[in-house]
Design a protein that fits this description.
Elements (H helix, E strand, L loop, with lengths): L5 E2 L1 H8 L3 H10 L5 E2 L7 E4 H15 L4 H7 L1
Antiparallel strand pairs: 1-3, 2-3
Helix pairs in contact: 1-2
């Protein structure tokens, strides 16, 4: 875990194709985990695994368990 990539807000925003403002909002709200480095000028740092966890959670929430049954019924 020591060698895990740590990303800036801009890097996360670029990967997720979002505005950096949205990423900061998610960090402040606790939707995305990150570490704020000292003063505000230093900014946030987000572990790649936390970005992946956010994506995994979003995927789980958007896919209903009976998705296959819906397709079969159509």
């Amino acid at each position: 875990m020591a060698d895990e990539p740590v990303l800036t807000v801009d890097e996360v925003a670029q990967r997720l194709r979002l505005s950096p403002v949205t990423v900061r909002r998610w960090l402040r709200a606790g939707k995305l985990r990150g570490v704020r480095l000292g003063q505000t000028k230093a900014g946030w740092r987000i572990r790649l695994s936390d970005v992946n966890a956010l994506l995994e959670d979003a995927t789980q929430m958007s896919l209903p368990e009976d998705r296959g049954r819906e397709k079969a019924a159509a």
